[in-house]
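Consider the following assembly input.
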Amino acid sequence: MSDKRALVVDDEFHIVQVVSIKLKNNGFEVFTADNGSNAYELACEMKPDIIVTDYQMPVMSGLQLIEKLRENTDTVHIPVIMLTARGFAIEDEVKEKLRVSACLSKPFSPREVLQVVEDVLKQGVGV
Amino acid sequence: MKKELLIWKILGAGYLTAAVIALAGGLGLLPAGVILASIAGLFLCGVFFGYVVRRHLKKLKSISLSLSSQALIIPADFRGTLLEEITFSIRDFLSRSQDQLARVQEENQGLSLQLQLLRRRKSNVEEIINSIYDAVVVTDERERIILANEATEQLFGFMFENDKPKIITEVIQERGLIDLMTKTRQSKTAHVRHELTFQRQGQPVSFDTVLSCVEDDAGNVIQVVAVLHDITREKEIAQMKNDFVSHVSHELKTPLASINAYAEMLVDGEAQDTETIQQFCGIIQGQAQRLGRLIEDILNISRIESGLIKVKKETHSLALVIRDAVEMIKSYAQEKNIQIESPASILYDQVYVDRDMISQVVINLLSNAVKYMPAGGRIKVSSELDEVEGQVKITITDTGVGIPPEDVEHVFDKFYRVQANNQYAKGTGLGLNLVKQIVETVHEGNVFVTSTVGKGSTFGFVLPLAAERIAQSV
């Protein structure tokens, strides 16, 4: 069991719910947001240990969210895992530049999400 | 022959004798009477000689006339004489000349035919090259344009003059093409293929360019040929296909992701109570239905575009179709406290349509109006009959969020989503495209939209009346 805090971001309610339940059932405290803008505000306020975010979202996309997080000294270190239906569209250079810890393509397995979240937290990736 | 020789011999001897006597007389060796007699003899010989020559000339004239008429008649007294020999020689000469002349005339005729054939071929080749949609341009070793078809003239905006070849850089500004032609000449490459992109009227146009060299017997490059095939549209279609696949995969993966994730959660026992299990199952079912609708929309659009959809057209009252569609959407509208005003019934609004398809059009437009409208809004459906034009116009006006001006012209495009309105509702970007396909492709009507951000939108369509449609089909 973990006492970590996770922020789950997706404009699809069902995706947010399923990832949240999986993480909660495994000891995470979970916050949710339905777009990048709301997520950024929550991240600044709650300082989560990890963020799991969708790529394509209204108002602010997942990539834009990470760009903003990396510009802020309070959030620059937070590791981010990207869930995407277009995993192939994110270039390695961009992932490296924005320090995206991992990318998981939709449809994904909640088990796999949990495993990756735990691995990333163990490695302390993000900075 | 002997007689003739004898005459010439007598004449010759007479002249010689008279000349000797005259000479001797002149020297005072002979008496004056002898000299006078010799002169008289000389005169008589001259007269006789003249007579003989004139007679022969007359005969020669008649022979020459007979030669020209190709019916040779030789006088009897000429036979066996020198004149007969001369006549035969002339006849042979003329005969050979005529043969040679005939041969020359024949060759000349052949050459003339060949020339005509070559001219016709050249003209034909020019016509063929000019009829080619692709731009064809040929330069010589001095980089002068020696051939350019009409497509080239239109593409680069110049007039090709056969008798005034111009240096390529004088008339073509596209450095990429000029460099390629120079490089091809220098490298003596048989065939080179390159993609070139120019700007035309502010838009990029792409060409699949094939270049080749023409060499003389010594292997020197004397001409470079460039053929430019416009692939702008092909590239656009390829891009559209890529976008389509990308959009479809994204749209299909989203509900699939939910189905997969919730099913796994059930398998893993993450749903610990009955209520949660039922909730997960409900989500799986809902997402599966969403997936099904999405696939159906994609297939419908694809069927309409390819002309494979089965259309069952009959005469229907449009007001009734709208009334039924409004009934179907009413409960959804009431959830958001949105009022729908239905049209007043029209005396005659019969349209020749596939009822289910037109019903789908109205439902899509109404559900969009509800989706993009804050609670408490209003939707007005109205119809307008234009008997002069033989058509009926349906408009659906809402008091919703509106569409930014830059998005308005794209809202009927496949997979187009108004980013600014994404926060209000989920969508696939297929609903309005399906509306457009059904109205315009299947029913030969047209769709329209106007909108003001913050005030609302008006979507609508125009369909021909059944009478008009039937009259057109007769």
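Chain A has a mean pLDDT of 86. Ask yourself how this observation constrains the way the partners meet.
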